[in-house]
What we know:
The protein is α/β, with parallel strands linked by helices. It has helices at 3-9, 42-53, 117-122, 142-148, 161-173, 208-214, 229-232, 245-253, and strands spanning 24-26, 29-32, 57-60, 64-65, 70-71, 76-78, 83-88, 91-96, 130-133, 153-158, 179-183, 193-198, 215-228, 256-266, 271-280. Bound molecules: S-adenosylmethionine.
Amino acid sequence: MKPFDKISEKINTAHHAKLPRKWKKLGDIAVMDFSSIEETYHKEIAQIYAEELNVKTIIQKNKIVGELRKPENVKLLYGNETVTEISEYGIKYKLDLAEIMWSPGNTGWRSALSGPKEVTDFYTFNKHDIIIDYFAGIGYFSIQMARGYPNSKVIAIDKNPNSIKYLKINVEANQIDNIEIINDDCRNIDIKADVIHLGYIGNTIDFLENASNCLKIDGTIIFHEVYRNNWLGFKKRSDWNGVPINFSQLMENNGFKVNKFNRIKFYGPSTSHVVASLSKI
Ligand SMILES: C[S@@+](CC[C@H](N)C(=O)[O-])C[C@H]1O[C@@H](n2cnc3c(N)ncnc32)[C@H](O)[C@@H]1O
């Protein structure tokens, strides 16, 4: 019997049509959408989900907002602890889901040199003595890159003191000793690097000029962003081969050549999260 069938069996049939059939289990916390269920029944129903899914807390699915990508109006449907630990490709990440986002859809792409071949290919750098991660968060990419390049120095930057708090915990817990942590706006950083990682979406292009100034002449930029499929020229699956012309042109206008391009995931019905490896023209 599937978990949902076991859960619905324990709940009055009057609620069945409104029960969430999907959820994200992040360590020992589950995130799901109870917005169709009448509020008076939230706790009672959430408790059944918590017991069946073996989690300590259920959090209402919410929006991620603002520059620091914080979860908005966090509502606990069951339980009261929001700190969880997620394991991914051999690394443990502790974080507070009431304060910090975690994107389950990016899983394989956070693995750097420890995951699928298409990701390893992307994260294999010829020169890598100094790697700067501009939006390090709790260490999603920094820790994997530091583990993959043990003789390199990874400089992990984040503006949010709360992310930095968990970044420090995670670096220590995973026994990583080649990461330097800086709590600042990445645009204030003036350090020359072989690799600059821009693991951000929304307005990543706004950070490219600063990254360009910090990048050594033969360095690599890893650029994440979300674009409309139309703009990228993606209509059918076979369109995903090669680099979209509009994207190449945009990067060229900013002084960069696109060496690799890939789609990470669909992001809503008509947009895609993409990643590119860039070098200076
Ligand atoms: C949401 S995380 C990236 C998510 C991650 N790529 C993933 O796979 O889940 C983005 C981080 O960028 C940080 N940030 C936003 N603007 C920044 C800036 N100007 N300088 C440094 N860090 C910044 C935020 O605090 C946040 O921790």
